[in-house]
Amino acid sequence: MVADAPLWGGHGILRGLVALLTVLMYAGLPALLVMDASTCRPRRLSACLALLPALAVTPLLVFMPDALSYPVLALVVSVVALDCRRRIRELLWAQQRRIVEERKRTLRESRQLRRDVHDVLGYSLSAITVKAELVDRYLVENDPRVREEVAELLALSRRTLAEMRSFSSAARRLSLGVELASVRRVLAAAGVETLVYGDASEVHDPALGAALSLVLREGATNILRHSRAGLCRITLSSEDGTVTLRLSNDGYMGEFEGGEPLGTGLASLSSRLTAFDGTLTWTHEGGWFHLTARAPQSVAVYGTYAAT
Does the keyword NAD belong to this entry (predicted)? Predict the structure, then answer.
């Protein structure tokens, strides 16, 4: 009877193909496992191992009673398909996570780049502008000091070029003593009387000194660009293990020119001092603007401020 014919009875070719496929899969699996193991791909290795139950069932289909062959085959295919779907979803999720992390990392690096350019080069460019304006004025007035100003202008431009070429590490090499002298000269050239109390020997940690140098630069840049100061006081002191750097000027004008918020560049420096358990604050009173940085001497987190 046709109804009693075996389900696989008329499909000898299908049986042969299943058997051949089984042999090929068993023959190729060891090599695949070895390759995945050698390339350290645990995810792929686990996927290959997941095929073992299916491979174990496949030979049984050839010798299984015909009435059970199709149901078992359908079950095996369904299980494998569901497992493949789950693994594909996991791979897609992992890929999405990698993309998101890469975008976050790129954004962090972009912000760090902008901050480093501002903190390291902003002061030097402002100083060059001041010197260039002086040279222009002295040339018109035939002032003999023009040669001296040109020499300083050239030195500043060369220094800025060197900083630009290696600004990723320039912030770490800043010397507080050198920056104090430089700021004093630049402010004086701009017509700002500058009084310095204390010296760089108050700071024992070179990394902290470099961080305070950036604060000093930013404070001087703000005076040059956003104030009408005639007097600036710079105080550097150490008391009870805490270093304090304070810049005060008498030319506070509220918001900076162009509507720039008062703390735009200072907020960046505040995060740098956080690596030293330090703080950066700025206040104004009676036409005076005060910028104060504080950090303990004992915290030695060398270089980390430049990576935050």
Answer: no
